[in-house]
Amino acid sequence: MNHKGTRDIDTWSDAAGFRSIKEKFCHELEIGLKLYGRSSPAIASGQNLEDILGMFRPCESSQKTLPHQKTLAQRDIPLHRVKEGYGVTYISAVALKLEKVWAQRAIEIACNLAAAVVTTQNFTITVSPSAWIHLHLTPTGIAHWLQGLCLWREDGEDGAKQSGTGLSVEPIVLSGHKRAKQSGTGLSVEPIVLNRLASPLQNCPPPTELPSPPTPPPRGGRGDKERQLFEVQYAHARCCSLLRLAHREGLISLVVAASGDLTTEETFPWLDGEGNLRLSHPAEMAVISQLAGSLDGFWDLHQGGKNASVLRLALGLSQDLLKFYADCRIFGEMQKENLALARARSGLLLAGMQGLKLLLENGLGILAPLEL
User: Fold this and answer.
1) Phi and psi for 211 in degrees, rounded to 5?
2) pTM for this structure?
3) In this structure, how many other beta carbons lie within 10 angstroms of the beta carbon of residue 15?
4) Secondary structure class of 123 (helix, strand, coil)
5) For residue range 199-214, what is the model confidence (pLDDT) as tens digits?
6) Domains detected in the chain
7) Are 366 and 233 in contact, with CB atoms under 8 Å apart?
8) Could you tell me if 285 and 279 are in contact, meaning their C-beta atoms sit under 8 angstroms apart?
9) Alpha-helix residue ranges (DSSP H) falling in 40-138
10) Which of 103, 356, 119, 360 is closest to 238 using CA atoms?
11) Are strands 123-127 and 153-154 parallel, antiparallel or unpaired?
């Protein structure tokens, strides 16, 4: 079963180079602060304006700095994800931080800053009576963020991020799914049956016969860390196994990049007819929340912010992904009764796998195995 390709979708995260939602919201607040600072006579006339806004400047470089390359330390823009409740929400006390510096009431700064931030269908921004700024990712925003993660891939040589178009690697359609070459997208796909890489699909067992996990390293001492690393690697391999099965069941059309990475080219039905997120089960929301937190934590490390353990971030995501698969059916009756939900859950597996791959290979420097 072929599903419509999506290289022109408004992937809010992928198109601008954002995987971390926190990074995206910091970028939006940065722009809002600059616009507000320049338009407010009371602030613009202050002698310390440039010093204040200097903390939001890009790193010095002879080349043009992209939005996601700017130095935005957590100490500069306080932004925290709300872990309780439904959805993906962040809160910021930046107005409280600037109250004395800008000699304005925090609520005034917060309201003017919120008005300066250009919102889209992807997120909303509100201000509480205590001057806290709330940024909420809408269902459409969550869908675009997850879709961007599904489309994201790395170049096989230097690991540089590749956008959805103009890829330097040529993906090959896996066995059982033939696609014609697409024009106008910078993407070339060979409509051939792949023999050298098709074996993982051919050997993939039915849903009721998925293999049990291999025996992990023993507990105690150094073995504890090795065991945790094994659990993360196993979760990644498990996701890959389930995705290959979903491919064979017709839920998803996978392609293999020259680097060997599994990815796709299609849109997942994240939203229902009323614009609500299909993924509403507690286990599904736990994966979305943990995925956001893990990617935020990884970004924080690169910005010199809060020192989070990459292994802890990866372990938390791997545990939630395994629990999600245990609690939420994808195959069998589910794909017959609710095909759209089964496909959305397959997409969540792919997004989660991408997160684990990033943490394993870019964060921990170890292999993200396709199988164990």
Assistant:
1) -65, 150
2) 0.74
3) 15
4) strand
5) 344 444 444 444 455 5
6) 21-140 (no CATH), 157-364 (1.10.730.10)
7) yes
8) yes
9) 41-44, 49-53, 94-102, 106-116
10) 356
11) unpaired
